[in-house]
UniProtKB/TrEMBL annotation:
Residues 1-31 are annotated as: Disordered. This is Catalase. It comes from Streptomyces chisholmiae. InterPro entries: Catalase, Catalase_AS, Catalase_clade2, Catalase_clade2_helical, Catalase_core, Catalase_haem_BS, Catalase_immune_responsive, Catalase_large_C. It catalyses: 2 H2O2 = O2 + 2 H2O. Residues 7-22 have a biased composition (Basic and acidic residues). Residues 26-414 form the Catalase core domain. It is an enzyme of class 1 (oxidoreductase). Belongs to the catalase family. HPII subfamily. Decomposes hydrogen peroxide into water and oxygen; serves to protect cells from the toxic effects of hydrogen peroxide. Keywords: Heme, Hydrogen peroxide, Iron, Metal-binding, Oxidoreductase, Peroxidase. GO terms for molecular function: catalase activity. Gene3D superfamilies: 1.20.1370.20, 3.40.50.880, Catalase core domain. The keyword Heme applies.
């Protein structure tokens, strides 16, 4: 256990922060250096001398800077924060950090994509990792989750096959960070247990707008254990306070070029601004005696417990409020492990979890170069570490004394093991009995009911996006047999889905449904309902040119900032533009550097000369047209409507001259700033206006 004053992770890190702020440049062994720009040569034009220890040390260190990237989840972004429970959970778990609502536990969270390498784009179609390290006073607890509640395979032994299939193909190492290729679809179409998670992958859940607007899930059924030793099954859910929101696929592909760091930058800038990401931790609790009360197996990680069957119980809140100081030291070297558990939280026999408990320790040994990775600053627990582990590469501890074994008498028997009552972890006692067999339980066999449940629960636009995603992905698959087999699999989920996909990829649609659709839904699975409506932290572009109405710009900025949004003024050039009132308007960004896909909404303030200039600029028109295609809120004040009129936006009515305000599917125009801005804010808070989604492929 840690003492009270030890429980501040930042205080622990402070002496380790090497600011290099003043003083002379030195070698790694501390000798001051008089020149770091010229190596030691024999004469001005002569060879470099071996004697130049500074040159050799500098180059050698550089040559060794890289470590292996993570085999999966290589691309990520992290932040520090803290977690606080709402109330004591002592009834279910003895985990110390879940006992006292007055106590905060420091955390480090790393978000990631899965398939891409370290330098790949953020907005690819992929699962997102959501890994949280709680620095509790009883040791580090890692909740290593994803933004999907289910996983592709049921048994960890299939993980290498799955990863090899989704990663770039081995002969030419293409494509990067994409599942749209033959080997992925070959594998998943042959392995029907993947169907459910693939359905999530084809949904917009795979395209989060922001790490701040993304759910997280522990995926497995874990076990809480209370002080009396009673177990309760538990599923963990992170729910973002800003709601769960996604991008659209066309937008994602463009962002990958316009700003490949889109999600990473969003996280960094939000924390920098003081818009701290917040998530509620909720649990689904199932008494041990109800283990077999479901029509699926609780140990099967390809299944959810529908929230309508076991409701979520909110238990606490996490706030991320500090960016790391150094990406490599902290975000790259953080080492998560599913077996980093604390008393009161335990495993189940989920065969995926059991395998993970081997893999995460193993991978850190190669990635971080040996068994002392727990001593790296970001990984170092706040709880006191005492044991007989010794030596190894990168040993930072100095262990005085004679004894490094147990039992000992020469060291006074120290350190001694503790009991459950003294805060030791004790594996939950369950009776295990069985033959040694390589076989899965028949209770893991149903691969179709839950994908069907997911499909049935989607709003029409969500279904349309799923169909479009299957068509896109399979459209990149060369092997006709793989395309056909995928359609066959989908026909075991839903006939309408299978037909819609088939016609898009040139496969003969199945004539008959292979199964009857049971018609079950779980409304909680849809992103269309139950989202908190707010414009907070949304980025809004204001398009301006010389002669813009300064009054409009001020009104728009004030209204948006008042709601917590982040407006930015964009013009053809940086600096400032003249306002129609004879003043100036400061420009935040040059239009050419900030594509429309990098904003949540766009506004065109009034000003006849400004509108005319913007209309002549293809970039500004393209900007609005793109925002329209991606379902974003658009506003134009006064004469600004002229820019929109030229675009001929389908199905949209624009305000006539002098008309106060018209809201037509989130395109808000008119001369009355108050009314226009109020409707604009409502449309932004909806996230997207899906009714005018031009990507729709099925009704
Ligand atoms: Fe994993 C990393 C999440 C199954 C083996 N995994 C990794 C990370 C996350 C997950 C979020 C990144 C951690 C970080 O930011 O450093 N993994 C999951 C989830 C799974 C899952 C939610 C299923 C429920 N993983 C899984 C299996 C295996 C692995 C079945 C192996 C048998 N995962 C790894 C790994 C990684 C990893 C190879 C790569 C880097 C690392 O561990 O530290 O060990």
């Amino acid at each position: 256990m840690a003492d009270e004053e030890q429980l501040d992770k930042q205080r622990q890190l402070d002496p380790l922060r090497d600011r290099n702020e003043d003083g002379a440049l030195t070698t790694d062994f501390g000798t001051r250096v008089d020149d770091t720009d010229n190596a030691l040569h024999a004469g001005e034009r002569g060879p470099t001398l071996l004697e130049d220890f500074h040159f050799r040390e500098k180059i050698t260190h550089f040559d060794h800077e890289r470590i292996p990237e993570r085999v999966v989840h290589a691309r990520g972004a992290g932040a520090y924060g803290h977690f606080r429970p709402y109330a004591s959970l002592a009834e279910y778990t003895r985990a110390d950090f879940l006992q006292d609502p007055a106590r905060e536990t420091p955390v480090f969270v790393r978000f990631s994509t899965v398939a891409g390498s370290r330098g790949s784009a953020d907005t690819v179609r992929d699962v997102r990792g959501f890994a949280t390290k709680f620095y509790t006073r009883e040791g580090n607890y890692d909740l290593v989750g994803n933004n999907f509640p289910v996983f592709f395979v049921q048994d960890a032994i299939k993980f290498p096959d799955f990863v090899h299939a989704v990663k770039p193909e081995p002969h030419h190492e293409m494509p990067q960070a994409a599942s749209a290729h033959d080997t992925f679809w070959d594998f998943v179409s042959l392995q029907p247990e993947t169907l459910h998670t693939v359905m999530w992958l084809m949904s917009d859940r795979a395209l989060p707008r922001s790490y701040r607007m993304m759910q997280g899930f522990g995926v497995h059924t874990f076990r809480f254990v209370n002080a009396a030793g009673r177990g309760t099954f538990v599923k963990f859910h992170w729910r973002p306070l800003l709601g769960t929101h996604s991008l659209v696929w066309d937008e994602c592909q463009q962002i990958a070029g316009a700003d490949p760091d889109f999600n990473r930058r969003d996280l960094w800038e939000s924390i920098d601004r003081g818009d701290f990401p917040e998530y509620e931790l909720a649990v689904q609790l199932v008494p041990e005696e109800d283990e077999f009360a479901f029509d699926f197996d609780l140990l099967d990680p390809t299944k959810i417990i529908p929230e309508e069957v076991v409701p979520l119980r909110p238990i606490g809140r996490m706030t991320l409020d500090r960016n790391p100081d150094n990406f490599f030291a902290e975000t790259e070297q953080v080492a998560f492990h599913t077996a980093h558990v604390v008393p009161g939280i335990d495993f189940t026999n989920d065969p995926l979890l059991q395998g993970r408990n081997f893999s995460y320790l193993d991978t850190q040994l190669i990635r971080l170069g040996g068994p002392n990775f727990q001593q790296l600053p970001v990984n170092r627990p706040l709880a006191t570490v005492r044991n007989h582990h010794r030596d190894g590469y990168g040993q930072h501890r100095v262990h005085p004394g004679q004894t490094a074994y147990s039992p000992n008498s020469l060291g006074g028997g120290c350190p001694a093991v503790a009991g459950w009552d003294a805060g030791a972890f004790r594996h939950h006692q369950v009776r295990v009995d069985g033959d040694k067999i390589r076989r899965r339980s028949p209770s893991f066999d149903d691969h179709h009911s839950q994908p069907q449940l997911f499909w049935n629960s989607m709003a029409p636009w969500e279904k349309a996006h799923i169909v479009a995603a299957y068509r896109f992905e399979l459209g990149k698959v060369d092997a006709p047999a793989v395309r056909a087999r995928t359609v066959e699999q989908l026909n075991l989920v839903d006939h309408e889905l299978a037909v819609a996909v088939a016609v898009g990829i040139g496969v003969t649609p199945p004539a008959e449904p292979a199964v009857e659709n049971a018609g079950r839904t779980s409304p909680a699975l849809s992103m269309a309902t139950g989202q908190p409506g707010s414009i907070a932290t949304r980025k809004i572009a204001l398009l301006v040119a010389g002669g813009v109405s300064g009054a409009d710009v001020t009104a728009v900025r004030e209204a948006l900032i008042g709601g917590g949004a982040v407006p930015e003024v964009l013009a053809a050039h940086d600096g400032e533009v003249a306002s129609e009132e004879g003043g100036t308007v400061r420009v935040d960004r040059a239009l050419a550097t900030m594509s429309s896909v990098l904003y949540d909404a766009v506004c065109v303030p009034g000003g006849a000369a400004s509108t005319l200039e913007l209309s002549r600029d293809g970039l500004a028109s393209h900007y609005v047209a793109q925002a329209f295609k991606h379902g974003k809120a658009i506003a134009a004040l006064g004469s600004g409507v002229g820019l929109l009129r030229e675009l001929g936006l389908p199905g949209i009515r624009l305000a006539d001259e002098g008309e106060p305000a018209v809201d037509s599917l989130g395109v808000v125009t008119g001369v009355d700033p108050d009314t226009v801005l109020a409707s604009f804010a409502d449309a932004i808070a909806l996230h997207r206006v899906w009714e005018r989604d031009t990507d729709r492929t099925v009704a």
